[in-house]
Amino acid sequence: MLYCLNNPSKFRKNFGLTNSEQLNCSVDVHTERPEKLALWASVRRIFTIHNGYPHLPIHVESTALSLKTVSLSVFIAISAFGASQISYAFPAEAAFTQNTDTGVWSFGKDSGFDVSTGESNQIPVYVTIPSGADPFDNSGAWLWSYSSSANKDTASSLSLVISKNQAWNTASNKYIDLTSTTMWIAAGLKSDFFINNASINSPDAKKEYIGGLSEAPESGHYSETTNGNTLNVKLTNGATFMGKFFGARNDLGGGAGSAATGSTVGNTNNNIVNIDLDKGTKLYAKLIFGGRSAQLDAVKGSPVSFKDSSNKEITTNAVHKGFETNGNEVWIKGKLSEEFAKNLQNEDPGESSLMISKGIFGGEGYESNDNLVSVKDSLIVAGFPNARKLGLVGGRGNYFMRINQVDLKNKDSNSTKVNNSLVWDGNELAKNSAVADHNIVTVDNSYIGYKISKESNDWDSYSEDAWKGTNHAFSIYGGWSTGQAANNIVSIRNSVVNGNVIGGLELKDRLSASASDLRNLSPNLVSLFNVKLEKGSAVYGTATAEGSWTTTDGVDRVDEGSLKAVNRRRGVVYLSGENEVDSVYARYVHFGQYVDNSILEKNTSVERSISRDYYPTSDKYQSVVNDPTYTVKDSAALKRITSSNADASQYSMRLGDLVARSYVVNRTGFHSSLSSRDSSNVSNETNGLHNFWVGAYVNLVNSVNGDGINFNKSKQDLFKDKENYIVNHSYGVGDSERDLNLSLLVHDDGMVYSYDPSSEGSSVSSDSNAQHRPALMHNFRYHYDGLVLYTGVNTGLDSDGNKINAVAISFDQIEQFRKQSDQKLNAFGNTFVGVFLEGNPHPFFKPSFENGHDSIKASEMTFEPTTLEGSSPFDIYQSGRVVAHATYGFYKYLHFDGIDGSFADPDAKDETGTLVGTVSGKLTAAGTSGGVGIKYWLKELDIVKGETLLLNGALQDSDLGKTDSIRLQERFTLSAALKGKGNLAIAENSAVVLGSPKTIYTIASVNEAGDDVLYKKPEANEYTGYTDVQKGATLAVGIDGALGSTNKFTSSLQLQDNASFYLQSHAQNVGHLYVAENAKLDLSKPADITNTSSSFTYEADLGDFGELVVHNTYKPNGENLASNIFGNIDGDEDSKLVINTGRANISSANADFSGTFELRKAAGYLYNANALQNAKVIVSQSSSLYFHNGEGLQTTRSADPRSNAYVSAIQNAGDVFLSGGTEEVASLNHVNVQKGYEGQNGSVIHYRGLVQGPNNSYVDVIHSETASGTSKVSFGDDHSKIPVSGIFKEARGEKTLKSEGIPIFVIADKGIEGDQLRLEMQPFGVVAKDNEAYKWIYSLGYNDEEQGSQRTWVLYNSDDKDHYEPLVPPKEEENLVLRPEAGAYVGASQSWAKMHMRLHDRFGQAYYIDPFDGEEKPAAAWVRQVGSHSHFRMAGGQSKTHSNTAVTQIGGDLLRNEFNEDWKYIGGVFAGGLYNRSDSRSWDSAKSRSDGYSLGVYGTLYTGNSPDDGFYVDSWLLFGRYDNKIWSDEISPFKFKSHGWVWSVETGYTIPIGESGTKDYNKLIWTFQPEAQLVWDGVKANSANDSFGTKYRQLGTDNVTLRVGARLHANYMNKGLGFIEGNWIHNSKKAGVQMGTDKIYMDGGRNLGEFRMGLEGHLSRNTLGWATVGVQAGKAGYHNETAQIGIKYMF
């Protein structure tokens, strides 16, 4: 469709033509060229004014005119004159045709100007209009679209592709900013360009006429709706184009008075502009609007009356509230010649696309909400100088710049006038002059305010003066409003911005600013991620301004050119990555979080509230404070930089860094002053006022590198390169984490508290907090010497290289400002700090309170983040592994660099309003780098089980730097608490101190005078892994319990070669102790720590006395490991080394240890004679001290081969073993006790040695200066048992008189009666020298010097006639007794005979004819069990032996036959087992055990039906083999074997006696059976030797036993019988043993009498059982009792 619109009359008529008529219409093509219009150059400049946008300066070829200098009436007059004289060079309307094949509209084939619409019923409209037809913009050519749909709300879509330059778009081949060459393009348009009313001929009249319309003329084919339209503009093939673009524009005002005829007629919502620029293209965009609604330009409105705030009646004019301009979007996508916009240099764009524009607006209108502008991969160039003030805006709340300030102050006087055009809503003033809420601007990888050369910018016809001070800047606003602008967002990423970035600017319906009546501004947000703002550009969360008013077209309104920013700190700023700005003006600043543009753009509703629950001004603030489980729910678009954030993890904020990875460079410094630095653009109203951020929040990752080895935290400047603003993230220099990072030991310095009451307060500051006092606020502000994670930095130089103060903060002035503005923060001029930690949605901070100024409580002034579960949240990494979880503490207020000082502020006032001229606070030296950040310190380490935390201590040449408020040694001191199940290591050759007694956590109170601090005892650590002090390292402790508490302590303290451990007189428990050779364990003295690179003296924090308690609970391999000390122990007299359970070995000489070595239920082994030579030893109950110093020594001593051991004193309540090791005389000891021995109840002294005679004995001896108490003497575990273990096996007792006794305890000064040592000993025996079967019994006594004080306790076995003391039996004068091993041996040998048996032992009555049926049984099997007990004496009763034997035998008949009717025989086999246990006691006791087996055969010849019917002969033969063992307490068990043959022959004859009973049931048959048996026993024992070397040989072998006796039977029908039996037994040999050369025999065992009795009977038809008991007796008390049972089964 072609529209012929060459004149106004045809414009209105031809819309109704048919297609043919339209094609045949007369077309008048413009022929004038722009160069012919030079005559009208001055007028043309005027036409560049876009009426309706008087806030924008006029853009002409060579001049920039300000609206403040030329009256609008002049412009209107010239405009009217020019309109009748000028025609434009646009393409003819007829040239705009459609290709019916493609549906594309263009200015002809290959014109490079292609237009399409979204659907067939959407039609593009191209018109040229005369000058003045568009009273709002004075446009000359328009392209828009409309829909022919019957639905009046159908939106349109218009797409324009420019692939070639358009000649009509230029003037003299330049894209000059002319109406005659610029096309206005909109997807949707409502207006009236051809008003058919001669009376409406002025611009103002036209504006008022259109403002009153509720509908656009149908004949104009304006768009059906200005809602939901889409404009697409694409430039390709290096094309250049110039135009002005609208998603939709709506000029209809719906009424020119205070009441609207339609509330939605002017709405312009949800329109979209898409700009797509290929490489090498250039777009001159005069303005871009996503949507623009009617603003009733030049309309005063109708009269209204109301009462103002003072109840004064006001009558003036007002217009109705404007329209919605909501939800509009502008999308700009360009192409860059470099991957990143930051790499592009000004004036060198390469093949990058360019957009030159005066302004880009998501939406503009009275209500401009929810609009979006997105710029990606683009270079945006300022189209005129004032783009610095207003360039890119998400949403602009502008209603012809009206402002609902009733009284307007006149410029030239203090008088006021009533505003003549207010905004009215119903029956009252509108709440807001305009609204711009929830608008969004996103910028990605772009350069906003990019500067190109004049030759490349056809619009840059301005003089240098015009550009001066602007730097070609292009500012960005999320929202801008004369009324309210709230919750707007600007989110910029990886971009450069030459211009201010402002979340929202709002005038709040006021033109005037007042220091005493500050506007309450709304929250807005700016998010910067890797953004550089060029010189002169700052970021504002929320901004406001002051200015004057002007009258335009008769309407009182804001004079936009007069607006000056008012320095306020409001709104919110997010900073992530590397950012560079002039300054950050905000109330709340967040580091390490950003807005994800991709999410925000897809769903603009995800982020609608900028305020956060945890802000002090939030109504939910107390809920967050009081509820640790309160979860802050972030929007989907808010991203916190975490270690798992693949998109941004390289910018994660990590404790241990110098400058955080997400930070900001404030080029103008961090100053509290709100004074104007640019009076032409910034208001002076806040001069003299001071303020800073209310809150600073950081997002930390939980990883902390623990490999660092640096200690000088001040060595690195904050900047590597000040000129290029390259910061230092690390404290060190190098390629490895070790070289780059600080040692963990520096991490905790911030908690060290050092209050010196003698120090003076500041003499140069009037800051109330500068007064020297114990308060933590004072300490943290002026005496803090810990770490700071810098989030904001400044070089100390301005952008021109001039020296400035990087920091200049007046806390008192800030506090005064906040009080006057009624902020009720109680922050005392400070900035809150909040911490977000990955994995926990709850923010961590500490609220302020009224007495915080003087608080000394860490719980009130600091906070510690935790995990959701409440545990340590930070992970300490070493060598890539998590070795510990850490808790860090944070000061609740922001850190500011600098020192206490004063600086000039000529406008500053005190609280009374009096000018003071200077203010006090903190400031850095001019030219010195400085910044702000968070103060933090390592508070606690929880070492991971199975991991080892390595503490890199100070080396001899480590650069420790310097400290101002704390001791330099704190640099290598770990004040943080230690807990967990992991291990701790001290790095080789380094020095570490564990524990500081004075920290912020040990402050108890302030003294009554208030000038000093009282401290409480520090809490002990509670880690349970081992502590490894590596080679050459030094570990000192500064508090009790540095290595663990009394119940949770390090499992092992291990000092490697040349390592040192200094307890420094503190108390400490450890699970185990290892001190390597050349290592040192010092319990008392200050540590010996020096440093060659630092001039300092180590100042030890000494405790009361050194006590190291070793528990020996370390089980590295499942068993408790003994403690070992190979190195040296040092300690004064008050020091203690306590072994509490387990074992400790000391192998070193320790002359410098003069303290106490105490054993508590423990064993201490001394392998060096001088291990405790100057120390006192306390041996508690259930404890043992072993002198093993002689063990393994090769003696060369000729006179006395024994060794010597030395100790200062012994207090014994347990056991003291005077020697150990092998049974060699050289291992015995003379234990020399320098001071005294004290024996307590239950104490035992254990001796060893060669106990023999007076002159050839060598035993342990104690030599003590004094001795008291009572102790027992032991030469073995139990003297009541033989043998005694402490006697060497080669010892052979000899007669020893008391007067010549063997010394065991020599006391130089025996002391006074009642306080003398008493020794007790149970006598013991020693094998006699010439009679090894006997032993001498030794007792204990003492001999006193007749003339001196010495007392000698001795061993003896025979009494002196002159010194009679009764001795124990058996002999009073000589104690020679039989050894019990003899009885034990004989008891074993006698047991072997228990395998002997008799015929009736295996056959019972030997039935072979079944008594029930008379049948003969062919075979039988049998088993018997025998138990016996024997008692005998030896050597005339010197020993007694009890022996218990059990025998089991089983056998069976293999053959049974008869020679004839009278003689029968039986043959069989049997086997048996034996077990014997014998106990023998003489003076002491011994035991033996035998067990073995036998195999044999038997045969019986008899007459009758069974052997019991007549005569029988029985014989058997067996072979036995036995294992034997003998042991006692004196000797170790020794074994021997025995074996041999045994043969027996037995005969008997049964004689019937008679019968008794008259009935079958009581009839008994009585028989008498004489018997005789011979047994030869050939079992013999192998010889054996005991541990004393005594050889044992069996006596009485090949013994023949003769038994003669008879049995009396009472037989009941062959079914059962009872019997009694009597025997005489004779042994041909005496049983005995030869021990050495001595032969010892059993008493009374050769002739014995025996009585037996038993019962036999059938248990079933085939089963016979019997039971027998018997007793044997002989001389000398010999007796033997036997019981047996047997069973036989007959087949």
Structure characterization notes:
With about 1700 residues, the chain is mainly beta. The chain contains 15 helices and 111 strands. The strands form 14 sheets. It has a 32-stranded mixed sheet that branches. The protein has a 12-stranded antiparallel beta barrel with strand order 94-95-96-97-98-99-101-105-106-109-110-111. Strands 38, 43, 46, 49, 53, 54, 55, 58, 61 and 66 form a 10-stranded mixed sheet that branches. Helix 3 packs across helix 4 (about 70-85). The longest helix has 12 residues, at about 70-85. The chain is elongated. Mean pLDDT is about 90; it is low at about 1-85 and about 1360-1375.
Helix content: under 10%
Work out the number of β strands: 111
- The oligomeric state is single chain
Overall residue-averaged pLDDT value: 89
What composes the largest sheet? 32 strands, mixed
Straight-line N-to-C gap: 132 Å
Number of continuous helical runs: 15
The coarse silhouette is elongated
- SS strand fraction: 35-45%
